[in-house]
Amino acid sequence: MSTTFWIIVAAAIATYLTRVGGHLVISRFERVHPRVEAGLNAVPAAVLTTLVAPAVLSAGPAEWAALIVAGAVSLRGGLLSMFLAGAAVLILARQFVA
Amino acid sequence: MSSEAIAERSRASEFWDGARLSTPVVVASAPFAVLFGALAVDNGFSVFEATLMSAAVFGGASQMVGIELFGQHVAPWLIVLSIFAVNFRHVLYSAGIGRRIAHWPVVQQVLGYFILTDPQYAISERRAENGQTVSFIWYLGLGLPVYVFWVVETALGAYFGKLISNTHSLGIDFLLPIYFFGLVMGFRKRPLWLPVVAVSAVASIIAYKTVGSPWHVSIGAVAGVLLAVILPPHHSGVGAKPGAEAEEQL
Fold first, then answer.
1. What's the structural domain count of chain A?
2. Do A41 and B191 touch (CB under 8 A)?
3. What range does the domain containing A75 cover?
4. Nearest to A41 among B59, B114, B190 (CB)
5. What pLDDT is stored for residue B144 in this prediction?
6. What ipTM score was computed for the predicted complex, to two decimals?
7. Which candidate from A4, A22, A74 shows the least CB-CB separation from B91?
């Protein structure tokens, strides 16, 4: 088997360990401390923010317009409507802002 | 109607409840699956290897980082370590979702953790917060379409990669940030949401500029989570009944 194949296998194992590891470690504790629970509650917003913030900073007017509209829609609508609104604004704005 | 038939129907409807919620995820990830396939072949992967990677790793951002480094002839162990770093955030998801799916049989849990992606976690967590049970069949309905489309579209991208000529005007490079932003907004009713998001944003930007990608993900996330841990518990609303938050969201 090629090097590429073994890279993929190793990457798959490493990735699975990250997906099962948190549970295997945390579930050893009988009771979850309030501060740990507060930390866990903060996890999704904290991680997902890091996938957005640097991209926003290095983006331009077309991307910012898309995010502003998507953010406004998300206050009322669901995930799909906010996503489609943002994508539509992005594609439209990029026809004018090169 | 027999009780077995009724149970069968309710299982089917739970599956489709999950599948319906997977639609925006499938739509948002489709361009990236195709793009990954095309870029992977461009960086020296065969069509089989590109498809195998999507099927075995099933983590978009980490796969992109992997083929980028592969194309630059980076040492194999460093490629694997970088993929591990990008995916390290799953440790936090795993710890969170473990509380929700502990009642499943072990084999189902083993499979469940395999398809634990960003949206899979976010949508499952939201369901649990609304007081609904995260059943295996619902979870599978949510994750299976995403997985199948991800793998098939990777293969298509690898075959027909050259057909996408102008990805910029289609906004393909910025669809994922918009989608992740939507998920962040979905958590806005949680206690400490704004301070956590603000700290994570600033920390990830600083890390991105200094340490560099992919570490900004882990560093930014840890900063936000630490803030929630450090602040006194009465600020973080941990003592409150879970139902109270669910009612707010309705």
1. 1
2. yes
3. 45-98
4. B190
5. 97
6. 0.82
7. A22
